[in-house]
Amino acid sequence: MNSELLQTFLKIVEYRQISQAAESLYITQAAASNRLTRMESLLGVKLINRVKGNNTISLTSYGQQLVPIAQQWLQLTRQVNGLKEMADYHTIRIGSSVEVDQAILANILPPLLQDDSLLRFHLQIASDTDIYNLVDNDLVDIGVSFVESSRHKIVTHRLGEERLVLITAPKSTYPDQLEANSLSRYDEVFIPYNDSFCKWHDLCWEDKFPPLAQLASAIDVPHYLISERSWALVPESMAQFFLAHNFAIRILKLLETPPSLPLISITKSDKASSPEVKRFVLNAQAALFKSHQDNNFG
Asked: By its UniProt entry, which InterPro entries does this protein fall under (predicted)?
């Protein structure tokens, strides 16, 4: 039985008027009448006596029998709901860049919440440097970043790797496969992911030429692919995100393979072995592996 129906019935019993019961529940009189009718239909009995011209109702014998049952039912419902407040919830505070959040964590975290009703996440978006600071200052339990850095009492663990893929505007004039020298830095939407990527990038394109745009994150790249020559290198999960959300992009194959971006988990040494963090790491690795298996970027 729906608790909402039982509550409405008891309010009608309390006030002896449907209109006052409805007012106490902040619903219309018609809504209260409909709930009462639904209850009578579900039980197959008449619960109140309605007399034309008389606003005050009286209970039938069935209605009188239902009152203590309804009261007990609602009491049990409140006790069950109270168990939720007493539950041993465990919250994981996560620091992440916006691109890791949108393209990776958004696929990893919801299934974890479905599997564990007591699990809660608190997600904080930050730059890669700030993610390490958040972990270092115990403001988050775990960070996720494309940048690996060595710090005292900080433990890093490689969750996996993100390949970089070349994307352009959908009507670009580039062939499906091309070499780096076919791309001009003047047309690039550039994101300096980490030192390893920047060193490789400098070998392919001279850094003395300014890019079309330099962004802190890959999340906004499609907005900057403003011409048929604009291009960018983005993590494959980000490219998948763009396609899934109907961003207009074209994915090409760059013959010079960019270095993969390491996806790093960052924790304090005293938290690295906690069950919640270990489970998050294992599930993140599994989800990332599956994501790579499912894509068809070649």
From this structure: LysR_HTH_N, LysR_subst-bd, WH-like_DNA-bd_sf, WH_DNA-bd_sf
